[in-house]
Structure formats: structure tokens, C-alpha cells
Amino acid sequence: EDAGLVKIDLLGVRNLAILQKTVDLVEKTKARKIDLENLPYNDPATFKLLAEGKTMGAFQLSGTGMTRYLKELKPSNIFDIMAMISLFRPGPMQAIPEFIARKHDSSKITYFDPRMESFLQQSYGVIVYQDDVLLTAINLAGYNWEEADKFRKAMGKKIPQEMEKQKDKFIEGCVKNGMSKAAAEKLFSIIEPFSAYGFNKAHAASYAVIAYQTAYLKAHYPVEFMTALMSAEADDAAKVAQAVAECKSLEIPVLGPDISKSDVGFTIEKDGVEKIRFGLSAIKNVGQAAITEILAACGKTPFASLSDFCQRVNLRVVNRKTIESLIKVGAMDEFGQRAKLLTDLAKIKNGGRAASAGQVSLFGDGENLTENNPGNGNSEDLTLAETNLPQWEKELLGFYFTEHPYLKFAKKFEEKVSFKLGQIFDWANLGQKAVVGGIVTSIRRTFTKTTNSEMAFARLEDDSGKIDLVVFPKIFDRTRHLWVEDSAILTTGRVDLREDEVFLIVEDAVDISEAHLLQVERIEAEAAKTVQITLPA
94 exposed, middle or buried (CB, 10 Å; 0-12, 13-18, 19+)? Predict the structure, then answer.
């Protein structure tokens, strides 16, 4: 600013691409044109979706903390969405419970000063935006617009000397305009911590429109929306896994990758019911060049066999590692068992387009496909290799697609756990004790700064969802043998919230084989569902 230059922030909002892709898919699959700029802002289905917590993919409205608040708020207009986007920030966040209470009970709506009703009516009397601070300074403290903007900058930059001047000016102005000094000081204390984090109203409105558009399309065209979302997030395995889980909850079938049917990104197939087909770009080790070659080689004639595939593609582009990955994730399941295909692949002589370069076999004579050779084709070896399917999918897709290993232990877990992880919003309260079970899918060990004691951060997952765990040194030292990937455990702890994510502070954990050591007594209360836990001495 001192140089006379204008600073401009250009945001790369991926959701805009998702919106456009959804609109294109709807036009292609349903021959309907959607005008995003003229959607009705009073659509019941859209607000119902948000109130039910189906926020995955909705711009600015997903995440565990925001979802929990939306389910409590049950937004009914675009101004509610604007307010939630603005309040869900450090500082203003503490006003969310009051905002929700006032929405559901108009008798609780009050204004610090009657003059504030004219600009706080839409937010039920709660200060939400930077504009609210500016209008408070103008209407109550007698500021002009230029002075109000200086007031905003001083508070936002936390300049001590300037803040003290502004405080004196604000209080003096409020008193001059009929307010007591004590009330003026209290009003200043209310807006002071808020100002550094508050959104301006135009910013909130812009974000709310995009949020509403994403929610509207998801409510009315869920298949197209989820297809567009997964295509946009294909390079992020965690988000694709979350989207697949969301499709399951929306009863949208998701089909695995198929070399004869998949495209680059996720696509829609219709066979009585609309289904989403996995895109090849979501598979690890399958690059863009290989995908282009596979699609060109396939054309309109599906591949007939593994041998046919190897004959028709350029094996310099679609190399051993790529084919191995395609087999492991099930993209060639129509040709036979995955383990058998891996064994066959190592034996296939190269009759493809790379032969002219002097390549005799696909991998060189006698070279096996993988370090862990799936066997020589006998049934015992192949059955053993097939048990690797979940691990192969986890390795190459980033999550368990065909069947979650949790299901092997589900019966043992269900009598012990307080709730499945996907139901945490319906059952858990902050500070509540809970028993949860699942598969450890990631683990990060670290040391505390104060005592240099080892502790861990882990992620627990079942077939419905996941939760992050914090294992402090004392508990970690006693249970360290459990904290390895793919172990099935039962753990007790206390539900907590960090930023917008719910997590569990672990108090005890056992291997699933020792689940009987945890004695759990369920207690149902009217106001909140709680769990009483008795641990062995």
C-alpha cells in the first residue's frame, strides 16, 4: 500500500470446476440445462440435505465440526449459510451455539443496543461480519466511513498504540451518543476479539452462493455431482475414499476400475440404475500416458483377455508395473483371478508393438512379476495370494474398495462398541467416554517436547468411517505393540474436538482377540447418549 500498489488474491477454487463438470454431466445424461446463476434460494431439498449432515463435497460446509453445527442449526435460508461460513473461524466460533439457539427460539433474540437491530436482524442479533463492526462504529460511536475503516484495520492488525487510541475514541463516541461508559466498554470487548477473523459480508455471500450451488446439485443430481467430485479429487486417495463412503450412504453404486469400460476420470453408467465407474487416473502407478494408450488401444472393442491386452497396447508405454497395478485393483477381473493373472503375466511372451525393438518377453525370460511371487498357479498358492486383495487395493487406490477388513471382525466388535465411526455425529458429545473399534490404517510416532517421551497419533477406520486417535506416552508405553498398520483393535477414550475435526484421546486399547477384557455398560439418557466404561485393574 505504501508503494501505491493494489494487492489481489486469486483463489483457485476447485469447487467451481466440480460445479461446471456436474452441469455438463446433467446435460449429457439427462438432457437438462442448469443455470447456476438463477437457482431458487428457497429449495427445501437443499436445506434438508444440509440439516441431515450430508455435507461431503459441499463448499465450505464439510468437515466434522461444521457438519455437527449444521445438523443442530438446520439452516433454512441463504443467510444462515452465510453466517455459518463466517462464524466457523477462530474468534467468532464461540458465538455459534448462541446463534443456533436464537434461530430456534426467537424469544432469545436480543440486541446489545436497539440501534443494532437494523443491521443484525438477519443474524438474530449476533455480530457475524466485519460489516457489523463497521456499522456499530458508525451508528453507535459516530464514526464516518473512513474512520470506521481505519478502526477495522487497527483491530485486524492488532497495533497496540493504535488500538488504545481507537478504544478511547470508540467509547467516547458511544457515550456521546447516549450509552453509558460501562456499556460502551463491554461492547468494545465483544467486538475486539472478533474483528481480526471476521469475514466481510460480500465475501461471505460469495462463498455462501457457491456452497448453496454445490449442495443444490448434490441434493437433486447426486450421481452427477459425486462423479464430478471424485474426478476432481482423483489424485487424493483420502478424499476419493471419503466420496466412495458417501456414495454408499446415498445408495449410489460405485463400480471398480475396468480396462474396457473406465475412462480417465470417473464416469456414469446406466443399467437400470445409475452407477459410477472408477476412473483409471485414481490408480497409483497408472500415469496419463498409459491411460491414453489403453483408451486408444481399446477403442470400441473391449479387451478379450490379458493376452489380448498385451498384444494391443504399446508395452513401452504400458509397462510391467502399470499392468501389475491394473490387475491388483481388479481392472482385469473379467479375465480371471487376480493372483492367477499375475502369474500368467510373467509367462506371456511379447507379441505386441514393442517386439520390433528386440524385446523378447514382457519382463525378460524367467523374470517374475513381483518380489512376492503369487505362486506357480496351484490352487493353494492362488487362494493364499487372493487374501492380499484388500492390501493391494489399499496400496494402489489408497483405501479398501471391495471389502473392508473390519468386516471380518464386525461381529466381535458390535457388542462392545458405543457406535460405529460413521455414526459419531449422532451419538458422540464432546468430553464423552466412548468405546470404538476398527482397523489401524495409519500411525505416526513422535516425542513430547517436555519429557521427550514417545507417543503416537493414529487413525482408526471401520467400514462406515474413521477417527483420529491421540495416544499419550503413558498409554502408548503400555500398548505400543498394538500401534501397527492393519491391526484390529478396540479402544476406549474421550471424544474431543480440534479445529473442525473430532478425535479420541485414548485411555486404553486392546487387540480384538482380547476384547473380552473391556467391560462396557451402556447407559441411555434422554438429553445425551453416554457410555460408562469399566476397565480391568
Answer: exposed
Compute the chain's Rg from CA coordinates: 29
Q: State whether residue 33 is helix, strand or coil.
A: coil
Give the pLDDT confidence score for residue 428 in this predicted structure: 57
Instruction: Report the distance separating Cα 239 and Cα 226, nearest Å.
Output: 11
Angle at 208 between CA 205 and CA 212, to 5 degrees: 140
- Residue 196 is predicted with a pLDDT of 62
DSSP 3-state assignment of 433?
A: strand
Question: So what's the pLDDT on residue 166?
Answer: 86
Q: In this predicted structure, what is the pLDDT of residue 435? A: 86
Sign of the alpha-carbon torsion through 77, 80, 85, 86: positive
Do residues 535 and 492 touch, judged by C-beta distance below 8 A?
yes
Residues in CB range of 159: below 8 A, 6 or more apart = none
Distance separating alpha carbons of residues 444 and 456, to the nearest angstrom: 6
Helix H segments across 398-465?
410-414, 424-427
Helices (H), 329-361: 338-345
CA pair distance 507, 471, nearest whole angstrom: 8
What would the pLDDT profile of 106-156 be if each residue is shown by its tens digit? 999 999 999 999 999 989 999 888 889 899 999 999 999 999 988 888 777
Distance CA 405, CA 298 (A): 34
> Which residues of the chain have a pLDDT value below 70?
91, 158-159, 193-196, 349-387, 424-431, 499-500, 514-537
Q: Helix, strand, coil: what percent of the chain each, to 5?
A: 50, 15, 35
Q: How far apart are CA 109 and CA 522, in angstroms?
A: 38
The helix/strand/coil state of 243 is helix
pLDDT at 94: 82
Give the separation between CA 126 and CA 315, rounded to whole angstroms.
64
pLDDT at 357: 46
CA distance 152 to 149: 5
> Alpha-carbon distance 275 to 215, whole Å?
20
Query: Which grid cell is 159?
Result: 497495533
Q: Between the CA of residue 251 and those of 25, 75, 99, what are the distances in Å?
A: 19, 24, 33
Torsion angles phi and psi, residue 402, rounded to 5:
-65, -50
Who's near 406: CB < 8 A, 6+ residues apart? Answer: 413, 437, 438, 439, 461, 462, 463, 488
Query: CA 111 to CA 223: how far, in whole Å?
Result: 44
pTM, two decimals, is 0.78
* Kind and range of the H or E run holding 506: strand 501-511
